[in-house]
Specification:
VC0802-like; Rossmann fold; seven-stranded mixed beta sheet
């Protein structure tokens, strides 16, 4: 039986509590939130399950050692005393990422990465007269060094490539939304597949795909080609297959509509291709429609969630009108709807003309954003029907 150990899941700013809740539901022990990270306790099987399942994690790190060091020279000495052959084989490749927040250390994270690399290479050379090579793009083993004042920690990355690389998206539009952020927004909205869902400016379809995977209970990273732990000495393929199959046995069919609109034909085609890559074409329909010319055509509550174009993709003198049209369309054409969108343009929000019922501080890349909610109550308005069940949207 594998023993339990502490792990750290990294995430985006604003999604820490969402990730913590995901981990609790998955069965993690001793879940504690930090800044852009959540620590937890589990065994090897849980590490596999976390990598497969977590929607808002970027990486799952397994700490190897923590120590104090006054500067990079002392860090080098202490790293060189670790038994690296238990972590990296001589014929494997490795890479090191470093995060440094310390007055005593060189603030250049790249330099700290190089210093740590030197310690590992020198260890192997002196002990074995041989050394593993560095491969920054596709290493067999990815290590993380974190320095906070004089506290140093070394961890091994069980994920490999960032977990936002789900494996389904090969076509994108300008400034596509990160998959982890998309999933986080869907979870923050409270959507679980219990209402109809629309992304009215769907771009390459990322929000739609993440919403459908949540509605169908499909593990977030089921389409990834590989994880970092698959190259570890103790990788247990039978255990991984058992966990994979167990998760897939819990998949369900969504019971409500999941739809995307975009006025650009190229975006619609990209979205359809990505949806097909994610094996979700049966669950999601995409239509070439201008949201501002659309109306809700069905009964029952609906969740609208979207990432409208930001300033760099929109003429500046159109932004006020654009946001006013969002508000007018929601107010007049979408009764019984909870509408959410993320924006970095706080001034433009004033032109929506509706009162927000929630505002959540977020980051989209380097941009400070707000994730805002508007509630449209049920009404009796009946609009002309767009035949959204026709074959042209499938």
């Amino acid at each position: 039986m594998d023993s339990n150990y502490k792990m750290i899941a990294t995430t985006l700013f604003g999604l820490e509590e969402v990730l913590a809740e995901e981990l609790r539901k998955l069965g993690a022990m001793d879940v504690q939130t930090g800044v852009r990270s959540v620590s937890f306790v589990g065994d090897k099987g849980f590490m596999y399950k976390a990598n497969l399942s977590l929607r808002t994690a970027i990486r799952i790190l397994k700490p190897l050692r923590s120590f104090s060091a006054r500067d990079e020279h002392e860090m080098y000495d202490k790293l060189k005393k670790m038994y690296w052959e238990n972590i990296i084989a001589k014929d494997q490749t490795f890479a090191i990422n470093a995060v440094v927040n310390s007055r005593n250390f060189t603030t250049n994270s790249h330099y700290i990465s190089l210093k740590a690399k030197d310690a590992i290479v020198d260890y192997f050379r002196e002990k074995y007269d041989d050394r593993p090579d560095v491969d920054i793009k596709h290493p067999d083993v990815r290590l993380h060094i974190h320095v906070e004042n004089q506290a140093c920690s070394v961890a091994i990355d069980s994920s490999g490539d960032s977990l936002h690389k789900r494996g389904y998206r090969d076509k994108t539009n300008l400034a596509p939304i990160n998959e982890v952020l998309a999933a986080g927004l869907v979870l923050l909205s409270g959507y679980k597949g219990h209402t109809h869902f629309i992304d009215p400016m769907c771009g390459s379809g990322t929000i739609l795909i993440e919403a459908a995977m949540i509605a169908a209970n499909i593990p977030a990273n089921i389409n990834r080609p590989e994880f970092g732990f698959e190259k570890w000495e103790d990788y247990d393929v039978e255990l991984f297959d058992t966990i994979h199959d167990s998760l897939m046995n819990k998949v369900v069919n969504p019971t409500h509509k999941i739809m995307g609109f975009d006025k650009a034909p190229s975006a619609v085609e990209k979205a359809k291709d990505n949806i097909e890559n994610a094996n979700l074409s049966d669950f999601i329909k995409v239509f070439q429609i201008n949201f501002f010319e659309s109306e809700k055509e069905w009964e029952g509550p609906t969740t609208i969630l979207f990432n409208p174009p930001y300033g760099e993709r929109l003429e500046l003198d159109n932004i006020e009108l654009f946001y006013k049209q969002i508000g007018d369309t929601l107010k007049h054409n979408y009764p019984d709807t909870m509408a959410w969108f993320i924006t970095s343009d706080m001034e433009a929000l004033k032109y929506v003309g509706l009162r927000t019922s929630r505002k959540i501080a977020m980051k989209n890349g380097d941009l400070d954003c707000k994730f805002v909610k508007y509630e449209m109550y049920p009404g009796s308005k009946k609009g002309k029907y767009l035949n959204l069940n026709s074959n042209e949207g499938s």
